[in-house]
Write a structure and sequence with these properties.
The chain has eight helices and eight strands; from the N terminus they run αββαβααβββαβαβαα. The chain has about 240 residues and is of the alpha/beta class. α1 runs antiparallel to α2 (about 55-75), α2 (about 55-75) packs across α3 (about 90-105) and α7 runs antiparallel to α8.
Length: about 240
């Protein structure tokens, strides 16, 4: 069941509904039982690697672009990004399709903004180095990635950008899971903890945004009339909700 622009009472903006429809049609977003890297059993799974057609890349690029425009409007004190950075590997196509859509929307504002991504292994021949794309030296860098759970990749990205002479001014992800970071002992210990995104905001002072949140996914299931999956996501949210 697709979500239409006329769904009554929906708090979900049109670009989010279009994004979610694309996710559902391509099985990028699925519901069931999935074991995460943290060991948690999640009732849903988001796989940005399944955005592998022109239509799907257009849909996710549009969603990221509108999210970034809103993010920069809300955080007007942030410096203008010089570079869109996509961490290898899934962040690479995300950075490219996002910048293309931003340039389409506002070519004056975004036409000279560059994209960049890291190599997993440094190249020791040809041009060499650990980056592909624009230089990060002196650049204000906006990072796009898919989903953040533990925050490890975010910290690694901040260090890469810093090492290359740039500064991360914001993170934008596809899905904010809104769940607390895993415990080092018993994951269901009942102790309040921030989300990975919240911890990054606290540690580095870097603002973050997402296309959709766990709350949006619950609203999606409500609009579809999928009561069982909606309740499973609500239970997951109650169990693991972050303190931030």
């Amino acid at each position: 069941m697709a979500l239409s622009d006329t769904d009554a009472g929906s708090p979900v903006p049109a670009f989010k509904r279009n994004f979610l429809n694309s996710c559902l049609s391509a099985n990028v977003l699925t519901f069931g039982t999935y074991t995460l890297k943290s060991g948690r059993k999640s009732p849903y799974f988001f796989n940005a690697g399944s955005f592998h057609s022109g239509n799907l890349l257009s849909a996710i690029g549009t969603a990221y672009a509108h999210t970034i425009i809103n993010f920069l409007s809300i955080n007007s004190e942030l410096p203008r990004p010089d570079t869109i950075f996509g961490p290898a590997y899934k962040g690479i196509p995300l950075a490219c399709c996002t910048l293309l859509e931003l340039q389409r929307i506002d070519p004056v504002r975004w036409g000279n903004v560059e994209y960049s991504f890291n190599r997993k292994e440094k190249k020791d021949h040809g041009e060499g180095g650990g980056l592909v794309g624009g230089s990060l030296q002196g650049a204000n860098v906006l990072v796009v990635d898919d989903v953040i759970t533990a925050g490890t990749a975010m910290r690694e990205t901040i260090e890469i950008v810093k090492r290359e002479g740039g500064k991360v001014v914001g993170f934008v992800v596809a899905v904010d899971r809104m769940e607390k970071m895993p415990s080092t002992t018993d994951d269901d210990d009942g102790v309040p903890r921030p989300s990975a995104m919240g911890q990054i905001r606290k540690e580095y002072g870097v603002p973050t945004a997402s296309i959709v949140t766990l709350d949006d996914l619950i609203e999606l299931l409500r609009m579809k009339g999928d009561e069982p999956d909606m309740e499973r996501l609500k239970d997951y949210r109650r169990r693991y909700i972050a303190s931030d």
